[in-house]
């Protein structure tokens, strides 16, 4: 049987040890935060982006760092999952990208505001969250490269790498997001006229297509179609 004073001693030693361990762990965690958040990268633009994020209640539909509402996609890593170009085009007019199908609000942001939001989302994507949320798993359905055509003399429109490779693969570069096809050899099965129609509005060619409609200029569409038709 323990005496009262022995119990008190054990109680005191255990409590004091637990408090010390707790304080040490808290200190250790707090000390790591500036590194994990890349504090030095929090620019004026990131702060403005965060304010726009908050004043427009983006979390009414989205989650970020796991917090918010589950109506719309998690955005912590959206900068990695999509690309800067993709997000820019999307925020300008979300409905144009998914005509008649989707529910993201069109905010009429200025270009500056969009840049700030992107800076904020980029900063979020770089925070070290000990593996949360899981890295976007983008390479799930990569197919072997079948195209023999690596000819670098075919002019590749700049937007192709910035935007199209967010979802497609060509010559082993890019991400393949199901059901976006690998574009190797696409010139063997489709022609230029098809690509032009497709890029103007995928949904008009194939009802219910999951490829968004991008606000591409007519000259970009022609360049892209020329480029795609040569992928043989
Ligand atoms: C009314 C709900 C709603 C609000 C509010 C909202 N969104 Fe969205 N958002 C969506 C939906 C739904 C999608 C999925 C695409 C679609 O359906 O248009 C989306 C998609 C996105 C995407 C692209 C995600 C991807 O993986 O392609 C980004 C970036 C984005 N939203 C940013 C924002 C920002 C920034 C705000 C605040 C300024 C915001 N959203 C506010 C509903 C919302
Ligand atoms: C958000 C992801 C996404 C992006 C970005 C994207 N695509 Fe697609 N693309 C798709 C999907 C999904 C399909 C399959 C559509 C379907 O069959 O419904 C597709 C299909 C295609 C096809 C094949 C059409 C056919 O039936 O043969 C071509 C060509 C194409 N995309 C070109 C492009 C080009 C060029 C760009 C850049 C301007 C681009 N895509 C950007 C998702 C995307």
UniProtKB/TrEMBL annotation:
Task: Spell out the InterPro entries in the cross-references.
Answer: Cyt_c-like_dom, Cyt_c-like_dom_sf, Cytochrome_c550/c551-like
- Which keywords annotate this record? Electron transport, Heme, Iron, Membrane, Metal-binding, Transmembrane, Transmembrane helix, Transport
Domain Cytochrome c, which positions?
A: 44-125, 151-232
One MF term in the entry's GO annotations: heme binding
Q: Where are the transmembrane segments?
A: 7-27
The UniProt record lists the keyword Electron transport: yes
Q: What is this protein called?
A: Cytochrome c domain-containing protein
Which species is the source of this protein?
Candidatus Azoamicus ciliaticola
């Amino acid at each position: 049987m323990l005496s009262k004073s022995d119990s008190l001693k054990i109680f005191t030693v255990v409590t004091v040890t637990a408090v010390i361990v707790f304080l040490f762990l808290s200190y250790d965690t707090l000390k790591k935060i500036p590194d994990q958040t890349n504090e030095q990268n929090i620019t004026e633009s990131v702060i403005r982006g965060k304010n726009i994020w908050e004043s427009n209640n983006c979390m009414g539909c989205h989650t970020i760092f796991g917090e918010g509402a589950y109506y719309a996609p998690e955005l912590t890593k959206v900068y990695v999952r999509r690309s800067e170009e993709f997000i820019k085009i999307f925020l300008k007019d979300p409905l144009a990208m998914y005509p008649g199908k989707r529910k993201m609000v069109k905010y009429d942001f200025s270009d500056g505001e969009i840049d700030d939001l992107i800076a904020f989302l980029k900063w979020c994507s770089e925070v070290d969250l000990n593996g949360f949320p899981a890295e976007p798993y983008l390479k799930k359905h990569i197919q072997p490269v079948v195209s023999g055509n690596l000819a670098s003399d075919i002019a590749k429109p700049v937007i192709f790498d910035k935007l199209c490779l967010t979802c497609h693969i060509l010559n082993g570069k890019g991400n393949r997001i199901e059901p976006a096809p690998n574009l190797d050899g696409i010139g063997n099965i489709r022609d230029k006229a098809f690509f032009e129609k497709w890029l103007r509005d995928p949904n008009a060619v194939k009802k219910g297509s999951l490829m968004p409609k991008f606000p591409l200029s007519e000259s970009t569409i022609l360049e892209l179609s020329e480029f795609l038709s040569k992928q043989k």
